[in-house]
Every structure is written in C-alpha cells, then in structure tokens.
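Sample entry follows:

_____
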Amino acid sequence: MQGRNLEDMVERQDAASPLADILRRYREEREIRLRTDSAGQYLQLKDPAADVTDSHKPSNNSRDLVDEDVEVVIVGCGWGGIVAGVELRKAGVENIRMIDKASGFGGVWSWNRYPGVACDTDAYIYMPLLEEMGVMPTANYVSGDEILAHATRVAHRFDLDQNALFETGVTEARWDEHAGRWTVSTDRGDVLRARFFMMAPGSLESPKVPNVPGIGSFLGKSFHSSRWDFEYTGGCSDGHLTNLRDKRVAVIGTGASAVQCIPHLGKWAKHLYVFQRTPSAIDWRDERPTDEAWYKSQERGWQMRRIQNYTSLVGLEPVEVDLVNDWWTKRQFAALQHLKPDMSGQEIGDILQAADIEAGEELRRRVSDIVHNPETAEGLKSWYQRYCKRPCFHDDYLQTFNLSNVTLVHTQGRGIERVTETGIVANDRHYPVDCIIYSTGFQLGAYADEPPVSLFGRDGISLSEKWRDGATTLHGFHIHGFPNFFLISIAQSAWGANLMHMLLEQGRHVAYIIAELMQRGVAVAEVSRTAEAAWVKHHEQLALNIAGVWENCTPSFFNNEGNMTLKALRSGPYGNGVGAFCHQLEQWRATGGLEGLELR
C-alpha cells in the first residue's frame, strides 16, 4: 500500500494546489461509498436467493464410497492445494487424498470460465513450476484455459490426480483425540481418517451477490460470472456469445472479472447495461506472444528470481533491475529511483504519494482519450490511490463504452437499489433486461464469518467458535486446539499482487513441517497457546500500524468495505508484506527446532 494517511496528506497541502484538489476528491469519493452495513451489503452465493448453479459440473459422476486411513487429506484442489501436494510428494509423502467441490483441479480457474477470463499477472511468475514442467506460456499474459490446463498437467505429473475426490464437499472434519487422527466426512458418504489435515480453500472460493430487495424475484436468466451459463449465452471462454444477439443484458460490477467479460458482452448483446458502484483503474495490458529464443535463454532458477524481483518491487523494496517490466512494476521501479537512504519517512511517503497521484492522473487522461462520451468517461475514472482496489489491465474494456449498444449506469457509489421481476432499479430508474450477470466478486476468506468446512478440534471446539473474535494462529498455519492441522489462506499470512508467490512459500513450509514430523516419529503436533498468542499480538500490531491507510481507502474487499474492525484486522493478511513474511518462515525452518509447536 502506497502513501500516508489521506487526512494528513490533505492538511499538509496548499489548499489551492492541484494536489490538494485531487486528495480532497479521493476523500469525497470514499465518503460517498461508506455504508453502515459494510460487508453485510452482500449475500454469499450459497443463499438460495442467488439462483445460480455450477455450469461446469458433470451431470453424473458416480463412484464407490471411500472409507480409509491416509497420511494427509487436503481440502482444496486449487493452486494452494496443488502446490502443497507437489511439495509433499517431493518430501516423500505418498499417501495423500485431495478433495474438492469442483469437477477437477484448478480452483478459481476451474470455476471461472467466463468469456475473456485471463490472468492479469505476468504468466512467467504466476504459472508455477515452469522450469520443472518444461512448459513455455504462450504469452506474457495467458487465458484462464491455459492456466487451468497447466494446473491439471502439474497435478498429473505429481500423481495428485490418482486419489483425488472431485464433486465432493467436506461436511465435517473432527479431531479424534484417542486415535490421534482427523475424521473427515463428505457429502458423498466418504469417511477418511487422516494423520494430517490441511485446508486450502482459496481466497476467492465463495461468490457473493448484492444484498438488495428483490434479489430472488427476477424472472429472466441470472447467474454469477464465476458460474457462467454458456448454454444460455452461447460461445465459450473465447467469446462468440451468439445467443445474446436478441437479449438485453445487465452486468452488475466493474471489477477484474467484469473488465474481462464486458468487451465480449458488448460485442454480442442486443444491449448491454453496465451497473457500476466504483470504477476500476484500467491500465495498459500490452499482451504479446512469448519470445521463444528469450525464454530458452533463461538461466536455471530464473523463475524464482523473477518472482522475488516482482514481489520486491510491488512491495516497494528497492532492486537494481526490473525483471518483469510490466505496468505492475515499471511505475514502482521509476518511483523508487527517487528515494535516498537519508530520507525521512515523511519524505519517502510524499514521493510515493506523488508518484501514485501522477499515475492516477495518467490513467484518468487515458479514459478521456479513449471514451468518446464525456459523461461516460467521467464515470469511468477512478478517484482513489491505485492499490485501494486491485488495478485492472485491459486494452479493449474502455473502448467497449463507445459502442451504441452499451450503456454505463454509474450509481455514484450507491450500487443498485433493487431487482424486480423484469429488471433492475438504479438511480431511481428501472432498466428492463432479459439477463442479469452478477460480477460482484467473492466473499474474501479472511473476513468470512464462517469457515468453509465445519471443523472441530480438541474437546469438540469449533473453528467458528475459536475465531469468533478473529483469527488466532501461528504464521497463519497452526491453530491451538487443532492438532496436526494446517491452514493455507491469507488469514495472518502474507498476500501480494502475485498470490502464487505466497502459495509456493506456504506449500514449501507445510511440506517441510509434515516431513519433519514423520521423520521424527511425532504422533501429534500442536501450536502452544503461548506461541499462538505471541504471533497474534505481533500480527495485530502490524495491522494496526497500517489500519489508518486502509481506512482512508475507498471501500472494497481489501479493507472489509471500509470497516476495518479489530476482528477484520486480526483475520487479515500479514502487515509487513510477502518478503518479510517469507524471511520469517525461512528463519523459523533454519533453526530446525519447530519452535512453538508442542510435539507428542
């Protein structure tokens, strides 16, 4: 996160300066969007009012029930689970069961197959294990289909698919103190008794929709973008939505998913209405095919060096060279060149703030240059620090609003008012439509009130009860009262622009611990109450140090919709960033003592 407290920045400017005007606009736009219900303005997809289904799930997938003892059960077959499974295989752990509600590997890429789905992070740092797999991405940014295929390929290469249970939900996991094992039950009737139990549910696991009146009353077609209905729209993830030629379509939301699918909808729909609460900052994408000669010339270990270089730059850590050189990093690299070792914290903050505002102005000018209608262009301009919301990168999104069949409905931060049987009401006007597509994001795992699995530890304590006031862990992995349990999430763990870096580090760390416990013949390992409390205190202090910055951001899922309570801070990501967090894990492993864990 760049910059200093927004209130302080405004007060320290000349009241008549252009910079002060911009900062005041940031503050005003934020205040317009603050709501008393914060995250309560959304419903999770499991709510029956959401009326959406998994369009990727096969209609029939019969199999025998599984009743067995295993070494490790991993819930989640996205990249978090895959990477952990790969590292366990490398450590010599063979008896692994993986479970997922989806129909295959891939996690968020298995669910999200909407038209235009792609990664907005450099493919050479996002797609893991490229060197080991001998794989060359087709471009510097790749489609969701290519990432999904890579996930399946990695899982097969390390035999993770042999014992995977798909289309299977875990109904309960309960610690058996006498047996020293976890009993894991599924909605298919399976019962697995696991020595080690790991949850890797993903941060984007539970889609959400607006909690507005009439959400279940619409008589037309509705679905969430992460559960796209191609039977209704026609086409595939490449587009060609031919069935929409005679349809009036509404898209609610203008975040990362919407930015990618809206150009395809605008091309094919009879008319497209885009309902926007807060515009995204749309930067250049500059996608280009991979230069095969360049790719083959990379020296051994190039990918991890590139990953670490990117993490450092996005985390505002000075580096000698920008290896990625995309729009995520080049602005950061340029700003860091102005910093000097003898500068005060305020001077550094002012330089970074000025660089952020300059970038924002450039992106707002880009909107004016591309979008023909001045009123529409103004509605599409982002007025907040760039990293208050995840930046988006696209070279066709803004152009879509020049089409005569596309209308931006900018709600000035209020959002839609209600859904009717025939359409949507926003800005006191009713818009009749045939189809509503909710591109409204996900319930962020760290801020969710309920864990994705009913989890019961020693003496029957539930994780939801243990975490009623927020997360309590050691390093985000271990929870007192839940022996032999490992969590891979963003709660009290680091989270960066390239989430894959953190997943790689988490998988490596968990595999190290499990391999050490097995080698030492340890039956039960549990974080001590003291070690857990110490980490929570450390985490809270870091979170409180940056809370003022987040609270001055426009509301988004990053800051719990502008309501950074102590519970939200406690359940959020590590405040010192990915680099510092990884260094702590490395130091912890280097001691070899499994410090903080009680071994029996």
